[in-house]
Amino acid sequence: MQKRVLITGAAGFLGSHLCDRFIKEGYRVVGMDNLITGDLKNIEHLFKLEQFEFYHHDVSKFIHVPGELDYILHFASPASPIDYLKIPIQTLKVGALGTHNCLGLAKAKGARILVASTSEVYGDPLVHPQTEEYWGNVNPVGPRGVYDEAKRFMESITMAYHTYHNVETRIIRIFNTYGPRMRLNDGRALPAFIGQALRGEDLTVFGDGSQTRSFCYVDDLVEGIYRLLMSDYSNPVNIGNPDEITLKEFAEEIIKLTGTNQKIVYRPLPADDPKQRKPDITKAKEILGWEPVINRAEGVKITYDYFKSLPHEELFKQPKEFKSVNR
In the chain, how long is the greatest CA-to-CA distance? Predict the structure, then answer.
């Protein structure tokens, strides 16, 4: 019998790449998404496959999946500030109620579950680079708190199900990731810079550009997720690329790559924006034998070529508006 995996957030950037990977590994894949921030275009190539099925469903509500499940990967959540600042309650609910429902399903099915946490649990870190033992510096009532605290709660309830109900759980803390199928207008630095370059606009850097990020190519991340799911390690693991760069330097790299001659313009830094972000991946190396293999120049070129191949109107799409979803 083929093993069966449920992937929530399947129509999103990471979820869709995970669907591809598990299909390739010979699994039967059940994708689930309410399409609030996901896009069916990301997985439409899978609909013709007999081993793929899709449920249009909000995981914040009770989840029913008939049949056996071996694994659950909970990746449903808005992930870019431009989205979660517009739908804060939905973001909190998918991290809290959605995780609770997925854990209940894992318990009922005897499935192993991996939940997608984030480097945002470290907030604006006072420790650099960030190890898994660092408890973070998060403002629970700031605008970003809706995402940060949803993910922190996710980790807590996941560990509670592990210790109290003996559910097999895995927790990944994902650092900045990029690659094809990102939305150009999702507000994160890499698609924002490339989108501005392709439109002939100046590149917007917030603050003085000295804040750092560490960008991991999506294929490397997916490999880390797969290895963690198959491991026997239940504590959180950082997965990301420790190659750190300032946002000013990164904007300059994008201008050079695209061959455009835009200048960099500076805007005020948003509230609680992290000044530094770099994973300590010692655990991933030791426990999973994982480290990134795709360098930034190679990964950004692939991503740039993907964005360039999109229909022209995609360049000018405005960020998504959400109506009546913050119930």
Answer: 58
